[in-house]
Each structure stands twice: as structure tokens, then as C-alpha cells.
Amino acid sequence: MSDSRLLFREFLRAPTSVATLTASSDALVAAMLAPPALEGDDPVVVELGAGTGRVTDALARALGGRGRHVAVELNPALAARLAARHPGVTVVPGDAGDLPALLRGLGIDRVDAVSSLLPWAAWAAAPVARLAGSVLAPGGTFTQVSLLPTAWLPPARRQLAALRAEFGAVTVGGPVWANLPPARVLVARR
């Protein structure tokens, strides 16, 4: 089954936990990867809501075998597909709300970057900004995709407020029109 069909099927099964019914575009993936600093020999990167792996693919290329790459995906079908496709990535079928415990279980206490495609339901269920902030190393970067057509809705405003409360300054990226639906990337630094 193609990634698109799998994503669409899983969205229909659980629309509140699968954030979108289309995979992220190349333009959105590039916008997500622009801020994190992945220099050095041993960067540690975590993805939250890795889905079908569009960001995973790009991060794996950017890391080029260096460091550690952990992808957390709640949906078992998407996590299984991701693990089969990326044997070099530690795929954790779990809830991002358990992030510190999941990382401790892997022997990781600090990460350099967290990239999130989590839906609002995840943000409503757990303090995502606080959890990400608790695992980021000094100088670490947190990126979150936010859908442009819904940016004015209360859940989107709460998400941005939570990031500002945890990190202080948050950069709101420009619109990524070449994505369906159009999106923007929120960037917070520790």
C-alpha cells in the first residue's frame, strides 16, 4: 500500500491522532529542517508524530549516519512502516506525552533538536512544549508545524502561547504555500 493510501486510511480511522490526510510537501520538510543545528559528530534528534516519514527521510539524509535519530509515532501502522523503511532510526511506537520517559528508556537525557508534526489533540492531552523543553540541550531547537488555514483558531493560539511560555521567543515562519494544506513552522530555541 502506498504511503498516501496508508496515511489516508489511518486518518479516517483516527482523525484526532493522525494530524493530516496528506504527507508533508518537500517545501514544508525543508522549512522544518532549516532551523535545527545538526553540526558535530553526535547530534541527537527526535521527531514527534513522524507519520509516513517525510521528515524522517530528510533528517536521515542530513545526519548522514552521524548521531542518534529517534522517531516517536503513536499510530502502530505508521510506526511499523517507518521502522521497516528506516532501520537506522530508532522508531518508538509511543505517545509523545511520555517523551522524557521514552528517551530515558533509550539512555538519552538531552537532545539537540525536536521536530514535531503533532496534532492539536496531542497538545491538548499533554504539555508538549514543556516536555520538549525538558529534554532539549542548551542551544537546542524545537520546530512545530502549524496549519495556516487554522492559525486563528483557539487551539492554534494555545499552542503558540504554550511555546512562548516555555521558550520565550518563538519565530513564526512564513507561509509554506506548496503544502496541502498550507502551513507554517514555529521555531523555538532553548
From TrEMBL:
Keywords from the UniProt entry: Methyltransferase, Transferase
Molecular function GO labels: methyltransferase activity
Q: Which Gene3D superfamilies match?
A: Vaccinia Virus protein VP39
GO BP terms: namely: methylation
Superkingdom of the organism of origin:
Bacteria
Which residue ranges does the record assign to the Methyltransferase domain?
A: 45-140
Q: Name one Pfam family in it.
A: Methyltransf_25
Disulfide bond: is it a keyword of this entry? no
Q: Quote the protein name from its UniProt record.
A: Phospholipid methyltransferase
Q: Name the source organism.
A: Pseudonocardia hydrocarbonoxydans
